[in-house]
Amino acid sequence: MYNPSAAGGAANTAYGSRLFVYEVEGLRQNEETDKTDYPIRRSGSVFVTVPYSRMNQEMQRITRMGGKIVSIRPATINGVANGNSSSGTVSQTSAEESKPVTQAEETQAKPKREKKDVPVNTYRPNAPFVGKCLSNEELVGEGGIGTVRHLVFDLSEGDLRYVEGQSIGIIPEGTDKNGKPHKLRLYSIASTRHGDNLDDKTVSLCVRQLEYKHPETGETVYGVCSTYLCHLGPGTGVKITGPVGKEMLLPDDPEANVIMLATGTGIAPFRAYLWRMFQEGEQKLNPNYQFKGFAWLIFGIPTTPNILYKEELEALQEKYPDHFRLTYAISREQKNPEGGRMYIQHRVAEHADELWKLVQDEKTHTYICGLKGMEGGIDEAMTAAAAKDGVEWKVYQKSIKERWHVETY
Q1: pLDDT surpassing 80 at residue 234
Q2: Which of 22, 52, 162, 187 is catalytic?
């Protein structure tokens, strides 16, 4: 079950004893700093060694002391353990004893772990696998906007295997205006590695038909591949490539916390995550992965009929209330605090303090999938929440790059 104070209660975990070095600027002499055993400079940097289990408390203490955290790094970088200071105390070490970490060092501090045993490019564009469309069903309810289809393809005649968070390529039939074959388009996989039928023989996609007005002629233009897929009939052969992608893979830890921020068909990989976490048939097939963590999906859509997989999502929330939280941002039906449309960034801002606490837990992975424009609003909300603890969000975000996953378009 999700505990909002999890970030401050990690002392009993394996990672709770890890040490981090905060570089802090702007500390001023006041009642709080008078309680320390070290003189405080009025300018320049000081360094604070903090065990992971006290990171949240120390951020708040630094804020009370008037300081601003400009970098966070593991205490072991460059062999620096900052051993001259006790945990959670301010120390004025020299530049040689604890030099400020550079941006290059900081971004390399926690390299993303190598993803082993992840299939990649089993089928390439010059030799695609031809799968068969098994089903093609509408996901948008009556009165909704546009069309979004859930497609299932048969893989039984090939060797295409994949894991949750990957994508496959689709090569549409026909040629472009120059008479050349159409280029492939990538789509996030919406099923677990076992497929919707749990028999390891299918892969599913969630596809919105792209439709827009030509900026010069005003003519309605339809996306080539999305239109091809949305009108695909069962039994039709489809050229498939891949799988590709390692950025959006789920952590192996079944006790991880998983934040999912989606707009529209960005829900696709998150449906795969949630099925792997909670679907009963999946649990039987994955005895070594029994999810016990906390998953939170914040989903942005224009109208209620556009809530993709609505019945599935709400059934999971009802059945697993301690492990799954579902939050909608319905732009054309709900209002933000300023009276405008409610977009996903407004929901993130509404829950920013809670999300910030959760993000500080080393067991938390955050995934963003959907329209590229959503990223700026999310960063703005997290910046405001982190600032309350005297933390610069962009700096902190780099320090957790192995837990911050983005796939936008």
Answers
A1: yes
A2: 187
